[in-house]
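ugh finaly. both done.
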Amino acid sequence: MSIRKENVENYEYTTMEDFQEHIINHRRPLLLKNVDIGECKEKWTVDYLAEVLGPNQVKVHVCPVGNMSFINKNFTYKTLEFKDFIKRAAAEVHSEWFLCENESYYLRSIGSDKRGRDVADINKQFPKIAKDVRFPRLFEDKDFFSSVIRIGSRGVQIWTHYDVMDNMLIQVSGEKRVALFSPEDTHYLYLSGDKSQVLDIDNPDTTAFPEFSKATRYETLLSPGDVLFIPALWHHNTVARVFGVGLNVFWKNLPHEMYDKTDVYGNKDPLPASKALSDVNKAIQSLSVLPKTYRDFYIQRAIAALEDAKLS
């Protein structure tokens, strides 16, 4: 059985207030077309970015193939000068390489602290180009969490995962296919932590992942100037059709005290959820001392209680 596909809904942006009112009741992805994202759309060429950010040191993923897997770790990290990185990422065959001559490159910008204790913020790490961007106003300034630059070679595919904050993905250059899956379909995605074990969503291993075909796949193609709203907990997977540059902006849509203060990537479960999952693991451990008949019986009771809570 093939997976069901739907297009992501287009949304005509007017004001932040209207947008916020819409997403309160409709927690679904939205495609904002032809939004004014500032001068970056015209200015951010390979040559311009290489010149302006040239000596900046960036830590990048290098992979022999485009389909990167965080579960199998089929990539390595390298630190390069930005000008070297972006020229490599824009090229399809390399005269110098680490793994192979057609290796793929991917940058997900991070904070400046070498210990990994601060978040990505284009205004702090890349102030020379931050002025080129006009961010769509989708949230209050006090809720801002991070702004992440994403640059990838043609064919780079980022594994299916979810984030715990709302975010917008701004396509500055190039084209990117984005596939999304509802939180309601989580049990079909074979998660390991926040990542799906289904590495090839276009040709999934139906023997290993027989339930995957029951999920509904929402899809859109981002072009320069497009902005995709990705609600928290929606699983998403991206493929760069060509070399491209994008920006991700994350914001806190829950009360701030619910987030882990040590989270610099926006992917640690909210504190109440983290505690609940920990309690589930403790409950499993407690039941493990019982004979199988008893263990299965009380697991079924626990599942029924959780289902009741879901419906209430």
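ok and the 2nd:
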Amino acid sequence: MGGGAGPVPPFFIVGSARSGTTLLRLMLNAHPEVAVPPESRFITEMWQDKPEVEVEPVLGALARHDRFRLWELPIEEVRAELDGRGAGRTAPYTEVMEAPYRAWARRRDKPLWGDKTPRYVENIPLLSRLWPSARFVHLVRDGRNVALSYADVAFGPRTLAKAAGLWARRVRAGVEAGRALDPARYLQMRYEDLVEAPERQARTLCGFLGLPFDPVVLDYVERGRDAVLPRAAANNPNVTKPLMSQTRSWERAMPEGQVEVFEALAGDVLSQLGYPRRYPVPSAAATRKARLGRMGIPVDRLPASRAK
């Protein structure tokens, strides 16, 4: 199992929303050794700074958690992963949190588990302490495309300033956390590279995770389809389709004025990631709009959501 000599540690796929993390999850789910369930969020939301916890209260809270309920996984199967421990028994918090992942993987006859929760990009320091051997895959995407893609979903920011601010904050959080980790535990990938050279990027990813490369990960459309929840399919209309080569749609779809304002808001992060800027020195008008946007004044609204 795995490509290395020792056991393969768990991994977390993180990044800004709308950056392609669902695509990465489906590719890895197609791998014969890996199971990556839907988003969790409960690891950090249920953490109470207690390394040792009573099992039954935590399982009860987990069973009620809205994200876990989307997994459609009976809590009895989670309890079974803990050897049936219940009332009055304690266990390490990490062991209890691993149980639903192990149960999810067991249902699919796979030995390894990972997590795909984009917002955990702001929790890498905590997660790296809880799982000292865990690895983190930080997927980044051009923030101008990220802002545009919010029109495909019913959630998320509705103004350019909020979209740019959220994207920049989460990118910075991931990059900063990655610098503090051993390089063997942090991999930054660009969505655009994944689309343009999927096999090369998949090989890099598998190598980083300690997995043998299997070409089936490139057949994620068919092999990963059953891992897509209806809600996720609605929010990611292209995720069950073959990779699309258009990775710079902002160049034709984003109004020129909004491009300039976005770059006034988050151009430094674009440059940090290696994305070329159209306006290295934004105009006074764009700078003023950016300042108003940061104050919460909706001067540049994103297109209305196209999500049904």
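summary for the 2nd one i guess: The radius of gyration is 20 Å.
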